[in-house]
Automatic annotation (TrEMBL):
It comes from Alkalibacterium putridalgicola. One of its GO terms (molecular function) is structural constituent of ribosome. HAMAP family: Ribosomal_bS20 (MF_00500). Residues 20-29 have a biased composition (Polar residues). The lineage of its organism: Bacteria, Bacillati, Bacillota, Bacilli, Lactobacillales. This is Small ribosomal subunit protein bS20.
């Protein structure tokens, strides 16, 4: 347990930050899954879901939640699925 006030405050902040980061990553994964299921079922809104997924991936990458190479790889794979 931290003794200094600043360490206690930092712990409180870290809990909040971790929750928001996890939420961001979860929403990114959900957006990717929604797009992939739409592509598998040949839904007509696949283009919109693709744009939402790419936006979520870019947002997570810019915040440092995922590596930029992983973001590029994911976007590339999604665009290949969309092109088929």
């Amino acid at each position: 347990m931290p003794n200094m006030d600043q360490a206690i405050k930092r712990q409180r902040q870290d809990v909040k930050k971790r929750a928001t980061n996890q939420s961001q990553v979860t929403s990114m994964r959900s957006a990717k899954k929604k797009f992939l299921t739409a592509v598998d079922t040949d839904a007509d809104n696949a283009k919109d879901l693709y744009e939402d997924a790419v936006k979520a991936i870019d947002k997570a990458s810019s915040k440092g939640l995922i590596h930029e190479n992983k973001a590029a790889r994911d976007k590339s794979r999604l665009s290949k699925k969309l092109a088929k």
